[in-house]
Amino acid sequence: LATVCKSCIVKYLQTSKYCPMCNTKIHETQPLLNLKLDRVMQDIVYKLVPGLQESEEKRIREFYQSRGLDRVTQPSSEDTVGGDPMGLPYSTFDHSRAHYFRYDEHVSLCLEKQSSSKDKSKAVLQQKYVRCSVRAQIRHLRRVLCHRLGLPLQHVQILFNNEALPDHMTMKQLWLSRWFGKPAPLLLHYSIKDKRR
């Protein structure tokens, strides 16, 4: 574990997937996933630099006010004695509890039914274009597809070039491994298995 400036490590990880200290691979597709705030170091810095905590609080307040956003805060110490259930004090904004997929990078997809000469009557999507987070997995896409088509999950399969894609694959992995350098949207096919099988 290494302690580094948050903005510096985020900028660094935009171009590299390796730790700047030990050169260990962090994560292929989601390097920011394992970043954690170092509360002890933050407290030490706040104590060493007079006025820094107040200055940061002011900048955070101004940031939220300028965008018309509600500031996410944790319950007051009267509501929970000593902070969270583990006994750790809350900071004014706990980043580990406030990640939203809506801030993620997005990928555009086109879902086409795999053409089959034996059955033309099976369900076809009315809206075949989808925009989702790069962290969405094939399993999520299958669930949405099944919901839209009114079919059980086991009857729908997502394909790329006639190859069934694994449920755990993320859209970013798919884009980088099979669609990199091609124009959007990424073209996927779906097949509907016969209910008798």
TrEMBL record:
RAWUL domain span: 128-191
One GO term (biological process): negative regulation of transcription by RNA polymerase II
Localization (cell): Nucleus
Main location: nucleus
UniProt keyword Zinc, yes or no: yes
Keyword Ubl conjugation: no
One Gene Ontology cellular component annotation held by this UniProt entry: PRC1 complex
InterPro entries given in the database record: RAWUL, Znf_RING/FYVE/PHD
GO molecular function annotations of the record: promoter-specific chromatin binding; zinc ion binding
Protein name (record): Polycomb group RING finger protein 1
Lineage of source species: Eukaryota, Metazoa, Chordata, Craniata, Vertebrata
Encoding gene, per UniProt annotation: Pcgf1
